Amino acid sequence: MSTAYLRRLMAGETPSVEEWNEHLIAFHERYENATSGPMSLMRSAEGETSYQIVARRAFELLPGARAVLDIGCGDGLLLRRIKQTYDRELELVGIDLCAIELERGRAMLGEATFVCGDASATDLGSGRFDAIVAHLAIMIASHQQRILTRARTALRTGGALLMLMEDLPLHPTIGGIFYAGVAVLQATYAGFAPTVPGRERLEEDGRLGAVLAETGFSGISVERHVVGARFTRAEMWAYAQRVYPFGLMEQPVQDRVREAIDDAVTARLEADGCVEITFPLRLVVAQ
User: Fold this and answer.
1) Which domains does the chain have, with CATH numbers?
2) By the 8 A CB rule, do 165 and 282 touch?
3) Beta strands 275-286 and 221-231: pairing type?
4) pLDDT of amino acid 201
5) For 116, phi and psi rounded to 5 degrees?
6) Would you state the pLDDT for residue 33?
7) pTM (two decimals)
8) What integer pLDDT is reported at residue 168 of this predicted model?
9) For helices 99-108 and 17-30, what crossing angle results, to 10°?
10) Torsions phi, psi of 49, nearest 5?
11) How would you write 123-136 as a 3-class SS string?
12) What are the residue ranges in the chain where pLDDT is below 70?
């Protein structure tokens, strides 16, 4: 099932923001735990998942927090980790585009409030939250400045935004494996270039800091974290399927992508039949 977003890319055209959002919704409807599944398998040297890192840092920075908002909350895993970390009553709110993901979240965290909507176009309130968190969500969103502006308005005085993002460039192992799949798509469709329409390029700390300052944030800091895991070839494909350009391609094309990724993994397999995956992350904190 290819989406309008993918059909645009296959034709060498630029998708619209609406088509990208529709693709995200379709993707997360098809793949349960699309992000939380693979990311929960990877841990830091201290044994924490990326969700636990964000929850711990929120508690360390804001131990007295009363209300927390998760932007791009998906199935609510980060909110569940925050609830466990604080171990007391909190107002927990999550917003996401995908209604099915939110239903999964409600089933596991009934006391939280889940809102279906686009964070760039939804009123998040004024001075309502002590902490606003986002786990690998704002980096793939369109209209990031609008989201950050609304987030700043929604923060109470003394509150903080904790935004987890990829730290590029990706490690050569995971980058090489994923690029093998993209190369198949580029060879199949002339001009195929995965992109997020309407997205600000925030890979450089300086540009990221400037955008945050433009939207009213100050006290900006960037922490580096690394998570990783050892994956078999089958586990690596299960992860790769959950990469947005791959998982909704028509089956014949997806089969070719899988073959290329399997070959790339096989070339990197170690004696135990696994490949070591390292995922570098930035945790951006702003007030």
Assistant:
1) 4-170+196-229+279-286 (3.40.50.150)
2) yes
3) antiparallel
4) 82
5) -90, 115
6) 86
7) 0.96
8) 86
9) 40
10) -80, 170
11) CCCCCCEEEEEEEC
12) 1
pLDDT value for 1: 64
Task: Give the residue carrying structure tokens 């947005």.
Answer: 244
Which tokens hold the place of 119? 């964070």
Alpha-carbon distance of 287 to 277, in angstroms, equals 33
pLDDT tens profile 9-39: 999 999 999 999 999 999 999 998 889 999 9
Token pair for 258? 């899988």
Residue 169 CB burial class (10 angstroms; 0-12, 13-18, ≥19): exposed
What whole-number distance in Å separates Cα of residue 212 and Cα of residue 78? Answer: 22
